[in-house]
Amino acid sequence: MKIAIQGELGSFSNEAALKLIPDGEIVPCSLSADVFAALSEGRVDAAVIPIENCLAGSVSEHFDLLLAHDVRIERETQLHIRHNLIALGGVTMAEIERVYSHPVALAQCRRFLAAHPSMKAFSNYDTAGSVKQLVEQKDRRSAAIASAAAARHYGAEILAANIEDDAENITRFFQVRRAAEAVIDPASNKISLAFALEDRPGTLVSALSAMAFMGINLTKIESRPVLGKPWEYIFYVDCKINSADEAERVIEALRRHCLMVKELGRYRDAGQ
């Protein structure tokens, strides 16, 4: 299987993809939109995307892309994120003047960067891509924050390991397929949905109350603005389900209160 990821080989998305599909062929993409385009156009068989980090929150763009494309979430996994300061072989900490990484990774290592004020932080498009860049440029004055896998893949060295501010740093990833090809796991106990409401008082309460009345456990709710329609929103929810029939009843209950309901996928809870 060809699996698209946003980022380079050696990234955390690469690790998550191989955790879900160990024999998969990874197809790196620069942008998340490119990942979904490759999947929708049939150039890859699946995509693996980060959807939520327990410290940094949701990856909002990915909710928008899940709604915009005819795809379904097939599986999820969780990855423990360990950040490392990585440089060329033989470089010492004292030589480092610049540190590159994805802005979320930089934000998760604030205490380390504050303790090393001589190192100036710069945002880059990807964690592993930052390692790739310094190796290609043979830049001995720069370092990257990325995974140990990135250091191994590009032949760089770890100067400082586990530099994240919080050791409980976990990211949730989705495996996504084209809707026509997605397979629903019979043991699925979660469902992700997107819905839109009429602009009148009490509509969100009514929709959520319908699920509460059924005893549905809502594990996540997120709102995203609708492009071109100021102050209108799409709501995204994750719910626990006990059966396929219960999933259908949740969808039908929402449809009675919503202008639009889209099922994004059913899958097994990776946290169990």
Descriptive report:
The protein has 272 residues and is an alpha/beta fold. The chain folds into three domains: 2-80 and 170-178, D-Maltodextrin-Binding Protein, domain 2; 84-160, D-Maltodextrin-Binding Protein, domain 2; 190-267, ACT domain (Alpha-Beta Plaits, 2-Layer Sandwich), CATH 3.30.70.260. It is built from nine helices and 15 strands. It has helices spanning 12-20, 32-40, 60-68, 103-107, 110-114, 127-137, 148-154, 203-213, 244-255; strands spanning 2-6, 25-29, 46-53, 57-58, 71-80, 84-87, 98-101, 120-123, 142-146, 157-160, 170-178, 190-196, 218-226, 229-240, 260-267. The strands form three sheets. Strands 1, 2, 3, 4, 5 and 11 form a six-stranded mixed sheet that branches. β3 and β4 form a beta hairpin. The two termini are 26 Å apart. The mean pLDDT is 95.
Strand content: 35-45%
Low-confidence stretches: none
Number of structural domains = 3
Name of the CATH homologous superfamily of the largest domain: Periplasmic binding protein-like II
Estimated helix fraction: 25-40%
Return the CATH class of the largest domain.
Alpha Beta
How far apart the termini lie comes to: 26 Å
Radius of gyration: 20 Å
Morphology? elongated
Q: What is the tally of helical segments? A: 9
SS-derived structural category: alpha/beta
CATH topology of the largest domain: D-Maltodextrin-Binding Protein, domain 2
Largest sheet geometry:
6 strands, mixed
| CATH 2nd-level architecture of the largest domain | 3-Layer(aba) Sandwich
Order of helices and strands: EHEHEEHEEEHHEHEHEEEHEEHE
Number of strands: 15
Summarize model confidence as the mean pLDDT: 95
